[in-house]
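__Record contents__

***
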Amino acid sequence: MLSRLVKAPTIREEWLSKALELIAMPLLGLTIFLVMWSVAASRIDTSLGKFPGPSAVLMQAQGLVSEFRDEKGRERAFYERQEKRNAELILRDPQAKPSMSPYSGAPTYPEQIFTSLKTVFTGFLLAALIAIPVGIAIGLSGFVYQAVNPIIQLFKPVSPLAWLPLVTIVVGSVYVNVNDSVPKSYVTSAVTVMLCCLWPTAINTAVGVASVNQDLVNVSKVLQLGRMQHVRHIVLPAAVPMIFTGLRLSLSTAWMVLIAAEMLSQNPGLGKFVWDEFQNGNNNSLGRIMVAVLTIGVIGYVLDRGMLLLQQRVSWDKQAVLR
């Protein structure tokens, strides 16, 4: 009787409700943020001038895009001059061996973003390769947990700023730079990121493995699964949500640590870009730093959404609500 009195929403009403939830509300929140930012920025005076508002930051972003295009133009012209010179050389002497020198211009903003992403994924993947097996071992065995837990609790709170001097000295002593594309500063940043994002994945994996439903464990015993089969067919599918929770936390930690690591190790990337702009201290520096801050936030958000989509793809429970 009650169900007859309550009118079911029409398709149009459902569509409007979804549009309000997914588009209108985020736009409203973004608009309020931009207005508050603009008002606050107009009232903040610094030694470098007014704090940049949204319009000033947009202008600096357009300037970075122009710099990128100009730099690519110079790079193309550089290689065209070499090709022309080599062609003339071969015309004069067919036996000559022409050579091409690499372009050594300053890294552009997109190239620095790419370098940061490469560094963070290197550290993150190394951490995941170590943390997931360790987390599984801790979750499966109380003895391993008792042995490893004090180490995790000891190193978990250590800041990247504390790790970085040690990593810099160790990498400087043991790493031999055999390839210019893998400099010591890159290795230092990647190792620092790895050390700082090990723990969320290890802890969450251990919790997920230890929380596997006892009925599933009993099924494994009844089927007399071997240890590896038990891990592969019972433990991992059941622990996937917690493993991905740890991976998402580790990835966000890695992204935050990376900026500090690049600042201090002077590895080309967004962190070094922010530090260089801070050191430059010209009128555009604050706006360019704000561009980097927003870039870091957007990339962090996209990385988190990417991990969420990956979790939905590999999880056995496709109906689970993920946030």
About this structure: The chain has twelve helices and two strands.
